[in-house]
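User: I would dearly like some help making sense of a protein record. This is the protein in question:
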Amino acid sequence: METSFTPIQALFGGSLIGIAAVALMALHGRVAGMTGILTGVILPKGDWGWRIAFLLGAVAAPVVILLLKGQSLPLQAEIPTSAIIMGGLLVGFGVTFGGGCTSGHGVCGIARLSPRSIAATLTFMVTTFVTVFAVRHVMGEF
């Protein structure tokens, strides 16, 4: 599977994520962890409005690109749907027991120099490297 690196788009997207995380912390005193935000919508905690607005903004971006460019973002998965579902379940399991997701720990936690978040992010990254290596080079899949 070939991947392409787009540094300008990555810098722009990363900057937008950083701005959103800082704004959410400054305006609401909340960490921009997508899992926690989504959980607060599913199991309302009384601060439902900003959570819905944040999620709608995240989902609306591809629609805006479609309207501006007249074309959708390319979406292709060269792996079976069952593998995607299994991966999603494993991520959900990890998020539950890891006390947060990559956006909460990786973007916000590291910025706050949280030792717990630094350890969690290192764990995410090492696990990802090992998994990709095993699936692509040891098992010879995908």
Summary: The chain has six helices and no strands.
